């Protein structure tokens, strides 16, 4: 089954940061791992889902306990940085003189305009120069509801309450620049496909939520591969390259402080996933069961 790839990828990126399926030794079903060895302070790695309906949000006791045992919170981005939102907005626009109205025919423009009005209360005009994957992410409220839950947002609140510092593994510029390397036209074409096949998109979203709740990374990969097809270059851009960049940062930060690392769950698994890369770097990485 092959459908609306970039829109689906954008959704997955914002939900799980999923990676490519692989054949190899299966990991224990878990989203929480303890990291030890190589001079690191005892730390934890947790796989998040970035946004989900409130009814599906559960913070398990083992996650709370791991958080409370650590001194520092590190997410993909430094989400308590007061300048982050302004920086994100400064990087949200397409390069050059690209604009959405130049890349869509009238019918498709109106279709996307109507979809945005239905979820955001405002049409496409204010977002005409925005990177298409960000426009796609705005449509997620069709599936999450108006006030979705967020693990990252909850962790930041917990950090503030316990006076823990929050840091990021990468900058907004590093994260958003990924989508300048993928054709804007392709991103838009696939958003239109998503709108033309909303039932399939809804089913994918529901399946992702259920697989996430099962903590079964092998099923996560199988589900993702079904939709991602075989565009390895984009998988490397969004996941594998970032995973490799994070390993030395995790080691450096963890040597200084016992740390709770929270990243999209799709970054955990696979031969080039964070769990396996940490093991290859000499760390002991142990799944924490209920």
Describe the structure.
- This protein has 290 residues and is of the alpha/beta class.
- The chain has 14 helices and six strands.
- The protein has a six-stranded mixed sheet, sandwiched between helices.
- Strand 1 (32-36) and strand 2 (43-48) form a beta hairpin.
Summarize the structure.
It is globular, with a radius of gyration of 19 Å. It is built from 14 helices and six strands. The chain has 290 residues and is α/β, with parallel strands linked by helices.
Q: What structural class do helix, strand and pairing data support?
A: alpha/beta
Give the number of DSSP strands. Answer: 6
The backbone outline, from C-alpha atoms, is globular
Q: What radius of gyration results from the CA coordinates?
A: 19 Å
Give the helix proportion (percent range): 40-55%
Q: Uncertain segments of ≥5 residues (pLDDT<50)?
A: 1-7, 18-26
The major pleated sheet works out as: 6 strands, mixed
N-to-C CA distance? 35 Å
Name the descriptors:
single chain, 290 residues, alpha/beta, six-stranded mixed sheet, 14 helices, 6 strands, 51% helix, globular, disordered N terminus
